[in-house]
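Hi R.,

Here are the chain sequences for the assembly we discussed:
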Amino acid sequence: MSRTTTTGPATAARDRATRPTWQILALLRMELLVLRHNWTATGMSVVTPLLVAILLTSGYGGQPVPGVRRVATVSAVLLTFVVHHHLTTVYAARRQEMVLKRLRTGLPADRTILLGTASGTLLTFLGQALALVLYAVVVLDLPVPVNPLIMLVALLLGAAVMAAYSAALSAVTRSSEAAMLTTLPSMVVFLAAPGALLPLDTLPPALDRILWFLPTGPFTELLRVGWLGQDDQGNGLDLAASVVAALPAVGVLVGWLVLGLLAARQWFRWEPRNG
Amino acid sequence: MEDVVIDVAGLRHSYGKFEAVRGVSLRIHRGELFALLGTNGAGKTTTIEVLEGLQTATAGRVRVLGLDPVRDRTTLRRRTGVMLQHGGFTGSLTVRETVEVWRRLTVRPRPAREVLELVELADRETVAVDQLSGGEGRRLELALAVLGRPEVLFLDEPTTGMDPASRRRTWDIVRELQRAGTTVLLTTHYLEEAEVLADRVAVLRGGHVVATGTPEDVVAALPARITFRLPAEPAPPDLPHATRSVRGDRVSYQTRDLQGDLARLLSWAAARQIRLAGLSARPATLEDVFLDLAADQQPRVPQQERETAR
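And here is the predicted structure of the full complex:
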């Protein structure tokens, strides 16, 4: 890949700038600088959601199953608001500022630019989820997660699904204000799953089974299974059984991700119209 | 070997049904400073964006440094610098932060201090990008475009929105880069800029190249002008190498033989003891080229004239 005749630190620097991980870190740095300069954005996307999440879970101290279910629900809300809604505004803003177009004139590949631009938001969400779990375990005295890896898979896959649809929807979003409108339908749809905005175990079974396929259905199920080490009927699951129980949910999320990536590929725009 | 850095043959590009570029061919050599001249909508930006790899050609062949700007993007990008027509900054970042982020995305970048001094923004380091004036913003764009010491530099209307001092500074920078061996392709609708900077120009109109050559060649291809105020009488004479037009009280000749026709006109006037008020005679300027070639009402006539003139 490198065929230069330069030596020493120059070569290292040269190669570094062409590496996607390094490029993503550079873009992450840009997003974090934006947050540091813009306290409104920081409050809206970082502080407020976490405070609301803590508020919505604080009544569940010492109740393992309802508590974990509640934290999973609140995580689904964080997922859609912080990742899906906020990231839509970020993509739209960077497009309108021509930052995305400017980035395309440089070294990073298209997917690196998309991932790098999302990195600040994704990191924010993972940080919030971690803080919420810590709060639940330490303050609310909920059990320590049995299979944190399954929970991590849920958080990463869920965030990836939301990010893909953010990229697709940013195409019809002209500004942060417009994002309120363009992401409202998708947020409602994404959240209308049992275990997210709808209750578990009380919907008619047929409806419950259909709505479970919406992204936050498998997302919240993975969180519950991973955290409690048991299914929603209360049957204990060992590691192998947990993984098997998680597979359908993972499969559905991957399906949503593939559709989202196709939609993003189809509709994503790098520059404003009539620019 | 002929060192062609930018090679475009039969380039076409359509946005949906609208064809913005309709068969443009250009060959730009190493170290050359080439200007694409044209009005808005002439196809300048589309052409340069295809070369930058931001747009895909609908038809035709495009090579930059022998590479395909879209297919060989990753290889080519470390050798080119791009200044877009409209900025690309996140407004809340400072000048310094913006340059630092871009340095991380550049192979062997120049020191931040160096580029900021180059574009005379060193004293604005801590200012947020959205507080910069239009000209300062353009200069920051230029700083980012030259951060990686590119072999080929694309500048899309680099001095639009600049005050005269900024514009002159930008010209100096571009000339310095060219002297160091950089090949530069710029678009502009300032004729002065093309005349002062460019080794060669191509005039675009309606997606076609309507004239190409050195600024002097392109000017020489157009007729010179003689004008004066219409005398009460007699009627002004016919001159052998000129066409005459009368607009209001101005008589104006477009001539291919300025000296000969002017001598005939003056002897005609002297013989009749007529004073030609407001007499002026001048060669064509790039401005004339531009107005003539850009005028939609006389399509392709200038090119025919140019050919017969040679």
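Chain A touches chain B through 33 residues (CB under 8 Å). The CA atoms of residues 118 and 245 of chain A lie 30 Å apart.

Let me know if anything looks off.

Best,
T.
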